[in-house]
């Protein structure tokens, strides 16, 4: 009854009061997801041309760089024509942030998103309200592929819940609308996991959502404790690759298939598995995806493209990202999913595996949570990599910005002490650049201790 009231009464009332069209968009997206691939691509091309024209007319960065490259939106008649346009990097975003803002949105209230990103480079993204509502609808649609339905409770294995930043209003909204309970990944201890398990056994959430490895740790602990009666309708795993051995434990403990979801803070949802689990459907209603310097091997079903991902945001007109290199490597394919959806597929996502750090007391902290608390809270940090050399020793590689100084070093010391306790030591290494992995991806958190811990869990 509460699920029904939330879905059909509270959610529509809250959307109407806020002037949000996301529920209207969600109904539309549910219908169009089964359009044919040709219809989906034709719709994408129309959206792509619109954002290109808007960017050239109102965004100084694109006006300047496209003129230098001698390209123009009118040149784009098909997707292949986009390859002549310059690639946008994280460095571009950081150095020329103001130039990426559309002059059409000057004076308007925009949504601000700050993230360190998977490469540890702090970025600020601005998003217009209609784009936010559209992206939210796209995300809700993909969440429903897991078996969850709008209005059902959600259990989140996630750090730093957003509603806490809005005081009692945020708590009230979470209680009435989001209906979410959190297991904070910044301090993932056995006691906290047991407390969380008690809560979700009582509340029976429809969706279990969280970092892939955090979900595995939760499932593994419940398995050890013999708790096997938590049965959500769906599980959504995100933020890092969901490995087969993690998926096996998660699905065994919770009795439902895990849905792998992929996105980045800069563009929100990029791709998500459906109920068939034959790859991840690209969120073609909000982004256009390419691979840079692609290899194109053929296979029996057609072709596959492997290389660094380039994303063009089709929904954010306040700060358009066009051919944005987000730092991940993917394999795109022309296979068609058995589910009947016309949305294209990603075969796999590579290079987003965040290590966990083992604290001196034996608990675990996720690398993503550490990135949020270090890269975003240290003044003058252009880029950061955290390496755990020993249980009680961290090495922080930092690419310093102009504002880096004694205050920054004190902030680091305070963060280490607050997060890990007084026995954790740390060294600071100032570098010109963070070294990349052979794949071209950079691991922002590397623990030389955590892999042994993970092997012990699955032994």
UniProtKB/TrEMBL annotation:
Entry's Gene Ontology molecular function annotations: ligase activity
The keyword Phosphoprotein is assigned to this record: no
UniProt keyword Ligase present: yes
Matches recorded under InterPro entries: ANL_N_sf, CapK_Type1_Caps_Biosynth
The organism's place on the tree of life at top rank: Bacteria
Keywords for the protein's UniProt record, in alphabetical order: Ligase
Leader peptide range in chain numbering: none
Protein name: Phenylacetate--CoA ligase family protein
Organism the protein comes from: Limnoglobus roseus
